[in-house]
Every structure is written in structure tokens, then in C-alpha cells.
Design brief:
The chain is of the alpha+beta class. It is built from 17 helices and 18 strands.
Length: 513
Amino acid sequence: MCGIICEIVFSENSLFKDKKLLQRIKNRGPNCCRAVEIDMGNGIKVNFCGAVLWMRGPTIIPQPVESDHGLLLYNGDIFNETWDINANDTLVILEKLGQVENFADIHIINELKQLRGPFSMIYYDKHTHNLYFMRDRIGRNTLLFHKSDQSIVISSVLGRKYKCIEIPATHIYVLNVLTNTIRSHPWDNGYSVEEHVLQHWYDKIQTLQSLPDEEFTFEFDHLDDLNEGEDIVGYIESTAKETKCKLKLMEKLLEHPIIAETVTKIMELLENSIKMRLRTQPFKCKECLMKSDPCIHCTVGILFSGGLDCTILAFLSHKYVPKDQSIELMNVAFKKDDNSSYEVPDRLTGRQSFKELKALFPSRKWVFREINVSKEELEECQRTSIADLVHPRQTILDESLGSALWFAARGHDEHSVSSSRVLLIGSGADELFGGYTRHRNAYKRQNWTGLQKELYLDWKRISFRNLARDDRVISDHGRYPRAPYLEENVVDYVLNLKPWLKLVNNTFYLDII
């Protein structure tokens, strides 16, 4: 994970003078930091700064990286099994974007569309003065846009003092530094390219992002035909009526060949996603990163409520973390007042799942890190840090969820501080597999059609609602969040399943039938 920021400056009032903002950038990338300035003439300068959290390649590569053709700021991971696992993906991308053909712009856009993985990126073409910026098509990483009379800023994080928007994950954007016109290229080739006056583009997105969730809707343009699959639906519903024990219900459902095949395929895809996200790192903790000796300390943690999604991540991670390293389970609890307790539901389920993991894998050292947060500490950190990281999201729910992730990722318990650099998170599991109460309510209102629409709506707005926010708050501690459920192959497979197959893996049926 890295912190990246680019500013087109029209005056002497540069945001690069804001020490607090630059520290936020450096928090995301504590291993090295570099800045570059390009003078465009006519009083226009473009400043680039990158702070690197080293995860890929044999050595740390300072950012921005530069060639004769362009300059790149890159935050993320390309999980492409055809690429050299030992190569630095930032340098590979710079080389690909610099292989200029007759139509350089088309070449750059086409190369960007080939990238798979969580990332945000800023690329400056020295020949055309075009600035390309984007989040990946799922929207897993953050990138913000601020505009004023003094400057235009594109950054991983900004803070409450800067009015800004989250750059939508729907397009690749191309801003010409000299003309201030912007083009939006959709990730999917079937849609047209649009050109905008910069201010109009900014105002339109700001209006959309200020809408409450209930007004944030999409057209249901390709819902599946739900008339198919009556036999399997009948089997699921009759089995649920006959079997009230959750464990026996799951065992009975897995006797159906289609359900068994689906579960097996999902687990194979998810395990491969975890494998890619764990093997692409130095396997060094924060203290040992610059040492040549092998590290036996914890390098991998899991944000751990004890629920199904994070427990599955822990279960599968055991196979790909070195046997002599521990795996930390980060479990956070808040105290509402002096009379309340830290024995909250997530703490209790966390301990139960921790106990089961120890029984399954007794040779592994599992560390259940109980992170207790008082009301006073919560309020202080929300005021000084969390509110800036959540921004421009600003609802009570954003603050609450952002706070839980920030404290969990900080990794402080009463004994010590986590040394891990990679954090696995369960983001996307609820949206893909129907983990929210509203999914059950949608089924009760409109049966499978209602559930299908609710799942589709959740997926279409996931990049707008929480992914960028979560990336900002977790990465503030110099740890890298990786979300295995949001790997492209997992997502593509699950999105194409009928709704009754997406929810076989939880207790949905027991609750609604």
C-alpha cells in the first residue's frame, strides 16, 4: 500500500505545504517517500509525491517512478499469474505504459484496461500533458479529487479541510493539464467515451455522492431469469423445513451435486485468491523488514469478528503463512460508558472461532488480540484522525464503521502492538453472499426476484459506499489491507450464480422459512 498525491498548482498556495496532509500520505507508505515537480510554464506546476509501503520486488522502489515517456504514482497490487512474482509491479506498469505506438492515448487506455487487482493510479504523459487517474474497476483502493481556484489535487487521502469527491471506480479519467478538459473512458468497451468541462464533471459527481443510500439507485439492465432452477429451490426449501439443526442442514444441502459443486468451486477460487495475496510480500514484520535474517515474527493479521467470512480467511491462510510465524486475529470492542463491558457479541464469537482454529491447527500459533477502546479514546481519535480519514464520507455509520476498522488495524492491545504488515479483510462477502438483514427482508417482500435486485444493488454501489473509506482508515497504520473475496475471479463467478446458490453458505433459509 502506498500514499500518492498529485497537485496541479496555479498559485503559490500549494497543498504540499500542509504538513498534516503529507504525514497522512506518509502513514500509508512508511518505507520511503519522494517528491517531483514539473514546471509547465505560464505559472502552472505539477507536483507529485509518493510514499511507499514495500510489498513487491527485491528492493524498495521510490515513487514516483519516471521514464522518458511518463511519470507514475501507483498504489496497489496487480495479481496477474503471468507476471514475474518477484518483479516490482510499479516498474512493470511504467514499462507497459511507455511502449508508445502511433496512437499513444489509445495504447495507454488499452494497457490500463488489462490490469487486474486492487489499485489506484496517476500517470502523467510527458508528450501529451495528459494526466490519467483511476481506481480499479471494483473500487478497492481510495483516490480523492479536490478542486479550487489555486489547484487541482488527486490524492489517496485529504481530510476535512478540503472539499473533495471520491473518484468513481466506473471509468479511467484523462485530464489535460493545459486545457482542463477531462475525458472518461468506461472500463467496459461497450460504452462510449465522454468529454466534460472539468467543473461540470466535478459538480455532477459531487451531487451523486451526496445522495442518501435510499436514493442511490441503478437500472436493473441484466437480471437473470429466475424461472430456471425450480428443482434445486424445492430441494433447498424442503430440506430447510425438515432439518432445524444448522450443521445437519448444511450437511444435507451439500448432498445435492449442484450445491456441492458450487461450494467447491467458490472455495477453490477463494483459496487461490488468498494464496496470491499472501505470497506476494517479503514475509517480514515491521521490525525485521530491513534485516537480512529470516523473520519469525507475525507478518499477517486478520480483522477478526469471529464471523463466518473472517474465520474462513483464517482457516485458508494457515496453508500459506510460514509455519514458524504466528497469525494475529484482530478483535476490537468498544466500551460505551463506565458501567458497560468489553464482552460484546463480536468478542464472544471471536473467542469461540479462535478456540476452533486452535483445535483445527494446533501446530500454528494463533494470537487473539483483544483490542479494547474506551469511550474517551474513541472520541479523541475520531476528532484528531478518523474523521479526516473517513472524509468525504460523513454519516454516523461511516464514522462508526471507520472507527472499528481504524482501531482494529492499529493493533494495540494491553500487552503490545501488532508487528504485521498485511491485513486480510472480509470486505465484499456480505454483498456477494447476502449477509445483511436487508437481504432477508428483500426476500420476504418479493421472494427471489426481490433478493436478486437487492444483491445487484449492493454490488453496484459497493465502490461508492465503503471500499475507499475502509482503505483510507486501515492504511493509516502502515499496514496493507487485502480483500480475498473481492478478487476478480471470485467476483465473476459469484455474480453469475442464481441467488439461491449464493446464500446456501449461511443460515438464511432457517431464518426465513
